[in-house]
Structures are given as structure tokens and as C-alpha cells.
């Protein structure tokens, strides 16, 4: 009697065959490194909930930026922790604001690296929400139109500081259109917009709020970020951003939203990013520290899965390690 057929296993029999038929290949070029910048000099402050991730100062942040370029990681995205926060988020659009200074330093030190600006206000407001807040006795609302004015100012300021890409993440309606207009009107027609089109109200942002020192002082972000249960709505969000002029789209978080990523990528055909957020990183780190999972294999599997689901590039705190692992 013949052996039972092994049709699918035949192509798994050797490393060579597996390499020949592999459908997805993760490379350092697929990765974007998020960096946190704080005031001061000579800083490299560990973040408790994100082992291996640091808050840098303007002078030291060029270190990891150089390392990214050396490893073939094409881009970084900068988040700022300003020295003072206020209700109007003025640190976000100050000429010598923290990320404006960091962008100039990084562009000067590593000219070929793509430097992306996260455009949001939660790190810059004293209340920790992503825009201008109107409060009544027992509730509050994010004032969309007032927020859009700050969005326009901030986009202009970021482009002037030399950022290559502006990435709005605040989930104010109309933000992409307002940014396109502001950039075009200020001589930055060539600055592309990476829209965090689909951003869920997620527990996976927990560690980021430590890193960026930006937890909301009251309430949560569920009146402007999306309900994790919704996919059709994600397509409406993306469609609006495309209509308003987004050059690239992003889905965030990544791991729990791969169905959304796949559909957004297929439906709109734009370069599409996935943000593998702080909580996704922290889970892998924590399990690895306990010896429960292998960090390298787990992280590379997660990133490969995100790419397989349609990501053209992935924002990940594992970017440098992954690039090293992939290069070795
Ligand atoms: C908002 C912003 C957040 C993240 C990126 N931009 C946090 C939030 O909405 O609370 C989260 C990123 C991460 O968790 O890694 N500016």
C-alpha cells in the first residue's frame, strides 16, 4: 500500500525548500522605530513598563537614530515629552518645541533617515487628552473644531522643523484635510501624510502612557478613539482620510486588529502601516523575562504575521533588535 499522501508536507522537508516557497519575508526595511524625547541633556531614562525602551534627550536621541540607519531601518517616529504642559498644548507647535529640536538634530546627524512626526496633543496637554477639551459638570467633550486649529498649526511647525512625514494620531474628524491644506499653504506640498486612520480605544496603550507621561487626568479616550468591536466603521474612517488626502494609512494596534489591517490594505491599496503598540511589546518582554516564551522567535513571528496580514511597514519598539536578528 502506498503511503498516505503528504502533499503539503513535501514542501516543508528542508530549509531550502521552505525558503523557496516562503510567501512573506520580514526585513529591516519593513520597520519603523518609535523614539521618546524629553528635555535635558545626556538623558537615557528607562521606561518601567517597556524594558529596553528609553526616554532620550535631544543630544542623545541621535544615537538610536544612527543605529536604526546602520541596521537598515529606514525611519523613526518621534514622540515628545515637553517641559511644561497646558490646556492648549502649546509645546506641540512651539518653534523650539521638544520634537522640533529633536527632528533638526536627527536630520542633521542622519540625513538619509526618514523622520516621522506623531501629531497628537495628549503628551502636551495638562489634562492628557488629545485636543481641546470642553468640560461640563459631569462630562467632557473633545472640541473638534478648536482641536483642528491646533492640528493645522502643529503640522506647519513640524514640517518647518524638517520632519519628512506628518502622522496625525489624535482621531479628530477632518484632521487629514486640515493638515493637507496647512502644509500646501506653507510651502510643504511635498510632505506626505501618514494617517492613523484607524485607531482603537485600546488597553494595549497602557505602557505608552508611562513612556510619554500622558495618561488622561479624567475620563478615557473612548469618545474619539474607536470601539474595538468595529470593523465596518474602520473602513469608513479610512475612506474619509483617503478622501481628505492621506498618502498612507495606519491601523493601530496591530496584533488584535489584523483583520482590519488586511481589509484596509486591500480596499484602498495605499501603503499601509501597522503600529505594534507598547502593550504588544510589553507582553512579549514580560513573558520572555519570565522564561515563558522565546523573545526573538515570538517577536519575529508577530512581526511576520503583521506583514503577512498586509502591512507595508510596521512601527515597533522591537525595531532595532529585530533588525539585528534579521541581519545575523
Ligand atoms: C496618542 C498616541 C498613543 C499612542 C501613540 N500615539 C496613546 C494613546 O492614544 O493613548 C500609543 C502607542 C503605543 O501604545 O505604543 N498620541
Question: Could you characterize the architecture of this molecule?
Answer:
With 328 residues, the protein is an alpha/beta fold. It has one domain: TIM Barrel (Alpha-Beta Barrel). The chain has eleven helices and twelve strands. The strands form two sheets. Strands 1, 2, 3, 4, 5, 8, 9, 10, 11 and 12 form a ten-stranded mixed beta sheet that branches. Strands 6-7 form a two-stranded antiparallel sheet. Helix 7 packs across helix 8. The radius of gyration is 20 Å and the shape is globular. The N and C termini lie far apart (46 Å). The model has no long low-confidence stretch (mean pLDDT 95). Bound molecules: ligand PBG. Ligand PBG binds next to helix 6.
Shape-level CATH architecture: Alpha-Beta Barrel
Bound molecules: ligand PBG
Rg to the nearest angstrom? 20 Å
- Judged by helices, strands and strand pairing, the structural class is alpha/beta
Largest sheet: 10 strands, mixed
Low-confidence stretches: none
Instruction: Give the number of domains.
Output: 1
First-residue to last-residue Cα separation: 46 Å
Number of strand segments: 12
Which range does the strand content fall in?
15-25%
- Quaternary state of the chains: single chain
DSSP helical segment count:
11
Specify the CATH class. Answer: Alpha Beta
Fraction of residues in helix: 25-40%
In the CATH hierarchy, what is the superfamily? Aldolase class I
**Global outline:** globular
Arithmetic mean pLDDT: 95
Question: Which properties best describe this structure?
Answer:
single chain, 328 residues, alpha/beta, TIM Barrel, 10-stranded mixed sheet, two-stranded antiparallel sheet, 12 strands, binds ligand PBG
